[in-house]
């Protein structure tokens, strides 16, 4: 091979290598341009998404307009929505404003916040449902719920107050079935516990479960005979028994339990100890009102008569629980809120309960539970698995003497109980007596 051919080979190889390197540089620059365009597109999309969001709540009826429509519409609409009448609703909002517990937000007034809160506790709705109804974000609804919950719990410290222990309740004064005996030792109210639905993480559910599979918490309440709550104690697990909860409420000063004065007491059921300040029924005798319903099941003897009157008097706390759970279904289906928040919700419900009772004596739900002998079936009662509380002998003997004195005071009376009533019918030939169908009705007590 001559020198010319060698030079041509070298020159061709150099040209090939230079062309290859130039193509690689071109492809690399193209890739860099593509990546730059992609990054620019991502940044522009983030910027547009942040400052040019697509509207979500676009309904023509805003939350404020909806509340105005409720307040100016038919009264039944507001009652079904807020579980109270218009006057009570407006008074509640104005009271919280006046006490500076709740004020208008930047874009939400007190009335709208209150409607959000009452809809959740009165209809067991979730935040996303209120967000759609009132055309706000879920975060806004949650924030407003917490604001109202805090305000009502603060209001509860003023409206859930101990009863007047210097005066015999009018229900006892005006009823001969109670006045002759319970007045002498001044019964001031009733105490009982009930279970309400709760939510807890799986690792903490065992103490909140009982014989049933539901997760619940045990709350103890005291009430007056006017169906007003006078004390509310929440936060105990379902497995905690009533006596233990009561003793804890009494023993800890920060609980502010309204201890009765000397000679005063609450009526309690057999799940509590018969100790100073609480009068329990006789064990081993029929007690509940349902035990005395029907033919031939009237009280027999002084102890059963005492238990019957005691149960009828204590039934007021059962009716209070009935009103509370009928008005606020959230107590039967608690959302997955933190435990601390779940403790405050029953307090808020009891506060609204008291306010409605004070403001509206003709409330429909209260009227349904007005009868003294109304038998309220509490499916979440906590009258089982009660532990024995060891009391000081003087403490136990004092209330035993009070309890024994009441049946002794009944001894000058003859209990007629239930008598047969002959049904008199008018026939064409005159007046006849039909002896076939007879009924039983309470005759009461007569003096011999």
Automatic annotation (TrEMBL):
Residues 59-154 form the DUF8040 domain. The keyword Nucleus applies. The keyword Ribonucleoprotein does not apply. Residues 1-31 are annotated as: Disordered. Signal peptide: none annotated. Keywords: Hydrolase, Metal-binding, Nuclease, Nucleus. InterPro entries: DUF8040, HARBI1-like, HARBI1_dom. This is Uncharacterized protein LOC103336277. The lineage of its organism: Eukaryota, Viridiplantae, Streptophyta, Embryophyta, Tracheophyta.
């Amino acid at each position: 091979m001559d020198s010319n051919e060698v030079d041509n080979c070298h020159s061709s190889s150099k040209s090939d290598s230079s062309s290859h390197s130039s193509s690689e540089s071109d492809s690399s620059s193209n890739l860099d341009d593509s990546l730059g365009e992609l990054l620019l597109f991502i940044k522009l999309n983030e910027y547009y998404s942040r400052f040019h969001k697509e509207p979500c709540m676009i309904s023509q009826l805003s939350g404020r307009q909806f509340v105005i429509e409720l307040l100016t519409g038919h009264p039944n609409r507001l009652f079904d929505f807020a579980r109270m009448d218009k006057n009570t609703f407006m008074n509640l909002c104005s009271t919280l404003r006046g006490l500076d517990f709740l004020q208008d937000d930047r874009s939400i007034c007190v009335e709208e916040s209150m409607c959000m809160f009452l809809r959740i506790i009165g209809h067991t709705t979730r935040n996303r449902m209120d967000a759609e109804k009132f055309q706000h974000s879920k975060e806004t609804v949650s924030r407003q719920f917490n604001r109202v919950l805090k305000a009502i719990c603060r209001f509860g410290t003023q409206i859930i107050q101990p009863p007047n222990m210097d005066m015999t309740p009018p229900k006892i004064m005006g009823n001969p079935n109670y006045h002759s005996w319970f007045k002498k030792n001044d019964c001031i109210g009733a105490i009982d516990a009930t279970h309400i639905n709760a939510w807890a993480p799986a690792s903490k559910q065992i103490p909140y479960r009982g014989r049933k599979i539901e997760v619940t918490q045990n709350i103890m309440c005291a009430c007056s005979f006017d169906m007003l709550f006078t004390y509310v104690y929440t936060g105990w697990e379902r497995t905690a028994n009533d006596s233990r909860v009561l003793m804890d409420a009494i023993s800890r000063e920060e609980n502010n339990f309204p201890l009765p004065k000397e000679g005063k007491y609450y009526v309690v059921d057999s799940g509590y100890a018969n100790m100073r300040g609480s009068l329990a029924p006789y064990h081993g005798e029929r007690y509940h009102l349902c035990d005395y319903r029907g033919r031939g099941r009237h009280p027999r003897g002084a102890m059963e008569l005492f238990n019957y009157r005691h149960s009828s008097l204590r039934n007021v706390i059962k009716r209070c629980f009935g009103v509370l759970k009928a008005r606020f279904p959230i107590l039967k289906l608690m959302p997955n809120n933190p435990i601390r928040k779940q403790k405050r919700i029953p307090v808020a419900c009891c506060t609204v309960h008291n306010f409605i009772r004070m403001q509206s004596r003709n409330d429909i739900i209260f009227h349904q539970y007005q009868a003294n002998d109304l038998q309220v079936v509490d499916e979440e009662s906590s009258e089982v698995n009660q532990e024995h509380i060891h009391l000081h002998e003087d403490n136990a003997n004092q209330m035993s003497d009070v309890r024994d004195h009441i049946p002794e005071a009944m001894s000058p009376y003859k209990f007629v109980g239930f008598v047969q009533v002959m049904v008199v019918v008018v026939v064409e030939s005159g007046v006849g007596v039909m002896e076939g169908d007879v009924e039983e009705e309470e005759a009461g007590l007569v003096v011999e």
